[in-house]
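Phthalate transporter
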Amino acid sequence: MTSTPISIMEKGQDIQKDKKLSLEGAYHHDVSVTHQDEEAMSASQRALEIDRKRVLRKMDWHILPFVSILYLLSFLDRANIGNAKIAGMAHDLHLDGLKYNIIAAVFFIPYAFAEVPSNICLKLFRPSRWIPSIMIAWGLVMTLMCLCKSFEGLIAARVFLGLTEAGLFPGITFYLSLWYRRRDTAQRLAIFFSAATIAGAFGGLLAWGIEHMEGIGGLYGWQWIFCLEGIATIIFAAVSYFFMHDYPETATFLNEKERAIVVDMLTEDRHGLATEFSMTYVWQALKDRKVYIMVGIYTGLLIPVYAISLFTPTIVNELGFSAANAQLLTVPPFACGCVLTLALGILSDRKNLRGPFVMFGAAISIIGYIVLITQKSAGASYVGAILAATGVYPCVPVTLAWAGSNAGGDMRRGVALAMVIGMGNLGGICSSFIYLKPPRFFLGHGVILGCLVGVIVLCMFAMWDFNRHNKLNIARCEAEKIDESRTDEFKKLGNDSPLFRYTI
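Tokens:
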């Protein structure tokens, strides 16, 4: 583990002390605050805010493009099975009946159960070592999938792909929470997650191009899809060892003053809650019923997300388009989803609200699935597919920002995020078995409609519950005169601390 440099921590503490002293001096009953004093304080606060925004932009440029490429490769590798299917894999390997559905589903079992241990490992080891290592592991699995020549071989490969890829998404989500305040995470997660929508769009284009390599080296076109995308992951993972930064306290692209500013922001945001590893915080997260509410919301979203990634090529193909055109026509749904993902992520942070934006996205997706169920024409159904993807994708990063911001303390947050992502990904098993009867897929669309309605109901309950807890905490603080000066008393309580405030 990387230790925090003392000088940086001292600078962060000095900034905190200076702010407290200035506030105490300004409001002490023996000191009269003049208009000039207020203007000076206001100017100082404005200058501090300008510095903070500058540092945030600098972190964005050094962190977000990098982690977005990591996730693009991850999502591309897990979802390319859908492109490979219509590129000839189903025919060449005789994947009749439910065989393709089983191949799609087995990925999610090890993927779900390995996520909590992986996030614990990320905290115990350096992110710049753990994340590239698991990338190389799944890149090797992905590359070797090109040698699979049977249903059983694909099953084994997908199991190992799920196991090795499990740590990336929860790991990066947790990693970003170690760099950014809770109020700043939604738009960063939206930028990060938009890589998934780009992967969906790019995957269709890439598959269309790679299909033309049919017969080269004695491999089918779908085998080249696995081979080339796996090699790309391995190459980028090797580079990641040298360019990935661990924590703000040790980031070489920040100078000493900038590191102190970041430490100060994070210290304020944590309300003095613990940052070290302890199994106590793991158990706190496991026993927190509010985490399971977020699991329910996330599962309801992941079922349509994975259905879209696994079956959009098939759905478009069944609308009457050729396989080659179907690959290309998968691009617009994901591209539209990317745009709205970024827009809602930014708005969610500006308003510091999560639930209403998740409900808004789910409502758009519901409209899309209603169109898919009720319309017979290919054009109208294609519009429905675009609406379905456009609405549901933005909900995912906002939900993760919501789950992360409502878990107090680094370790508790890491475990809570891994639980939400891990259990939610079990929804991928459901996604794999609901699209069975083409061309209208009534069962699949109907199940997803039910999931999205459930998401809206759970969001309404979560907003009410979090607001209730905030009111109770505020009342307790007022009754017992609890303020920030007593943070050490509640350091180990996580979001059970009376000083903690839930994001609605």
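The CA atoms of residues 113 and 201 lie 28 Å apart.
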